[in-house]
């Protein structure tokens, strides 16, 4: 447990081990991989979602087009938001398991080692 | 046995079950980590269920299906916004927060900033957001029970509100996070089971043909194709279209700023479990919202939803319970009575689980942020901190009961949407900046929290919700028709207050320098991304 290097107020410890880890190639790579996935995908799903919200108000003719029976574009567009949410969640889980977790574990092991435990 | 007796028996069973769980949980350890974070010993799957139980509130279960039953397609936006919002939590917040925080939302700010100002600000917005959300649930409980028992008496509603308040205080004071989490897990299972059952019965009536279900909804409501198209509620004017956009923004950005959701990530041992809990929650919540679509259109197809109907009189809130009665065989049949009682009990369990989570969140923040770190400057003992948390739960529960009684005129969905707007404006900017922007500092954090909080609540005060709204000659605002202080045209403030929260966070940061916050960012970042030094689970 890292209890002894932390104040009870839950503030940064200023411990040198964090600087070591931060400047390591492993950490820079981890950070690049994490941000490289999370930021573009966040922008993508927000744009996709807002497109849906805006079209619901301002693109009525298109949204009201019937596709099959009583099922129109608006309903399919809405359901596609569910599909994209499940899809992006699945992609992120795969990315994190394969690309992020191994490096994070290595860095964590190094942290424990440098603190002598 | 009539419906009232059956309903009462099922309600009492829900109460007995949850009280039993709470007493059991209270014997499982008594340290601060047990009380605030359930010992961080829940699995990802368990926490995923509990997140679902915390998130799928009465506003979702009763409100969304009711909105679809009354307004058709426009009610669907709530489902979509509430679900897509989870990607913000998954990609940007859950794991980093799990690794860098401890018990409350303020912890990750306090990690690299000046303790007292940021904790005071974060605790204030935690309590405000949670109380808005609490009021919605308690008001919902009052009207649900009164309508089910067929008595529209003010005294009965007040009794129910006080009863729910007393129960939630009990769960939180006695069970802490562990008891609350188990109540939420049980509720999630009950809610999913009930919803799957009714959805199946509705689809069965239409031979599993969705197009037929939609067609029946369109013709039964007399609104035709317009019922299946966007715009019935929000497409009336440019103002209402912008209001829709504002609501859409608040929904998608609010979730990852809701304190009662954020502290759920502290109940698992590692950030990987936090990730898997969000993945489970997305699956569960997504499936649930897909089913509310069937429930809403099913209610429109099978029930009378006209202007004078029971469904319309309840603002749509009774659509699901009455639909359950209809698919069970209709009013007067045994099957109908059983299903009505069952679904009502599920709705009641839903409310109890959500109010418990909210009270715990506020009490934790008051005890851990305000008492232990602002007043006692970090020198409080663990025992005294937990004692203050329990006392706070009493006080916050009492305040909520006192506020909920006069708030019964307010619409439930409005209160919840407001809580989302406040969370997105006041909390999300500082969380995102703190995790991703090295330069961010104390002034930026306090400006964005107070600015987002004051602007979102303030704009609502001057909106048509509070005064000046007249629909068909009837006053539709909170204040009497003689008082009109409204000048802000939108009902949801999100489109103004969310960008303002982000802007103020930016301005506050660039107008001040705080080298210590910048230096500590590297440490925060290492900890957030790797989990090195993160708080571990408690072993008993």
Task: Write up what this structure looks like.
The complex is a heterodimer of chains A (117) and B (540). Chain A is mainly alpha-helical. Chain A has one domain. Chain A has helices at 16-23, 25-58, 60-63, 73-114; strands at 66-68, 71-72. Chain B is mostly helical. Chain B has one domain: Sodium/glucose cotransporter, CATH 1.20.1730.10. Chain B is 72% helix and 1% strand. Chain B has a two-stranded antiparallel sheet with strand order 1-2. In chain B, helix 4 (58-71) runs parallel beside helix 12 (271-302) and helix 8 packs across helix 12. Chains A and B meet through helix 1, helix 2, strand 2 and helix 4 of A and helix 5, helix 9, helix 10, helix 12 and helix 20 of B.
Would you identify the CATH architecture of chain B? Up-down Bundle
Q: Bin the helical content of chain B.
A: over 70%
The chain pair with the largest interface is: A-B, 64 and 68 residues
The chain-level mean pLDDT of chain A equals: 88
Given the C-alpha coordinates, what overall shape of chain B results?
globular
Order of helices and strands of chain B, N to C?
HHHHHHHHHHHHHHHHHHEEHH
Q: Work out the radius of gyration of chain B.
A: 23 Å
- What is the tally of helical segments of chain A? 4
> How is the main sheet of chain A built?
2 strands, antiparallel
* Biggest sheet descriptor of chain B: 2 strands, antiparallel
Class computed from helices, strands and strand pairing of chain B:
mainly alpha
CATH domain class of chain B: Mainly Alpha
Number of domains of chain B: 1
- Got a strand count of chain A? 2
CATH topology of chain B: Sodium/glucose cotransporter
């Amino acid at each position: 447990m890292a209890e002894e290097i932390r104040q009870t107020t839950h503030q940064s410890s200023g411990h040198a081990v964090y600087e070591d880890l931060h400047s390591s190639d492993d950490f820079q790579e981890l950070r690049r991989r994490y941000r490289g996935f999370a930021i573009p995908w966040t922008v993508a799903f927000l744009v996709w979602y807002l497109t849906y919200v805006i079209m619901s108000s301002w693109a009525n003719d298109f949204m009201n087009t019937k596709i099959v029976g009583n099922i129109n574009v608006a309903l399919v567009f809405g359901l596609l938001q569910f599909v994209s949410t499940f899809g992006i969640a699945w992609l992120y889980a795969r990315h994190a398991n394969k690309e992020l977790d191994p490096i994070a574990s290595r860095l964590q092991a190094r942290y424990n080692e440098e603190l002598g435990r | 046995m009539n419906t009232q007796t059956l309903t009462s028996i099922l309600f009492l069973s829900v109460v007995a079950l949850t009280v039993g769980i709470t007493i059991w949980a209270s014997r499982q350890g008594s340290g601060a980590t047990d009380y605030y974070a359930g010992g961080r010993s829940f699995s990802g799957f368990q926490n995923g269920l509990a997140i679902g139980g915390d998130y799928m509130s009465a506003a979702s279960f009763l409100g969304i299906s009711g909105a679809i039953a009354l307004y058709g397609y426009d009610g669907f936006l709530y489902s979509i916004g509430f679900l897509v919002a989870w990607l913000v939590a998954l990609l940007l917040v859950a794991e980093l927060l799990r690794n860098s925080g401890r018990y409350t939302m303020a912890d990750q700010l306090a990690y690299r900033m000046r303790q007292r100002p940021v904790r005071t600000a974060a605790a204030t917005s935690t309590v405000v957001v949670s109380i808005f959300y609490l009021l919605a649930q308690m008001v919902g409980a009052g009207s649900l029970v009164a309508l089910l028992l067929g008595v529209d008496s003010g005294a009965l509603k007040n009794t129910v509100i006080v009863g729910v308040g007393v129960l939630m205080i009990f769960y939180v004071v006695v069970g802490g996070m562990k008891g609350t989490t188990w109540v939420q897990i049980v509720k999630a299972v009950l809610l999913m089971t009930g919803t799957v059952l009714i959805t199946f019965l509705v689809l069965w009536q239409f031979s599993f043909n969705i197009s037929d279900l939609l067609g029946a909804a369109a013709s039964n409501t007399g609104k035709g194709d317009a019922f299946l198209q966007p715009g019935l509620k929000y497409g009336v004017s440019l103002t209402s279209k912008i209001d829709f956009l504002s609501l859409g923004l608040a929904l998608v950005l609010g979730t990852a700023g809701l304190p009662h959701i954020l502290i759920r990530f502290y109940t698992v041992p590692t950030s990987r479990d936090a990730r898997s809990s969000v993945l489970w929650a997305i699956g569960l919540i997504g499936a649930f919202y897909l089913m509310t679509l069937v429930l809403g259109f099913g209610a429109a197809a099978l029930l009378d939803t006209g202007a004078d109907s029971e469904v319309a009189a309840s603002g749509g809130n009774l659509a699901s319970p009455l639909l359950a009665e209809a698919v069970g065989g209709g009013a007067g049949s045994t099957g109908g009575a059983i299903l009505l009682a069952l679904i009502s009990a599920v709705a009641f369990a839903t409310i109890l689980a959500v109010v418990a989570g909210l009270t715990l969140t506020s009490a934790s923040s008051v005890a851990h942020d305000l008492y232990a770190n602002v007043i006692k400057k970090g020198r409080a003992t663990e025992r005294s901190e937990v004692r203050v948390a329990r006392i706070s739960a009493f006080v916050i529960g009492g305040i909520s009961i006192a506020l909920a009684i006069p708030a019964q005129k307010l619409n439930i969905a409005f209160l919840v949407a407001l809580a989302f707007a406040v969370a997105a404006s006041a909390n999300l900017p500082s969380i995102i900046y703190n995790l991703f922007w090295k330069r961010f500092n104390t002034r930026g954090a306090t400006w964005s929290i107070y600015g987002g909080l004051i602007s979102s609540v303030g704009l609502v005060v001057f909106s048509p919700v509070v005064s000046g709204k007249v629909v068909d000659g009837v006053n539709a605002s909170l204040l009497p028709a003689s008082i009109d202080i409204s000048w802000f045209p939108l009902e949801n403030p999100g489109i103004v207050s969310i960008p303002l929260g982000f802007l103020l966070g930016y301005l506050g940061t660039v107008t001040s320098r705080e080298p210590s916050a910048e230096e500590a960012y590297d440490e925060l970042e290492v900890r957030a991304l790797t989990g090195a030094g993160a708080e571990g689970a408690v072993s008993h």
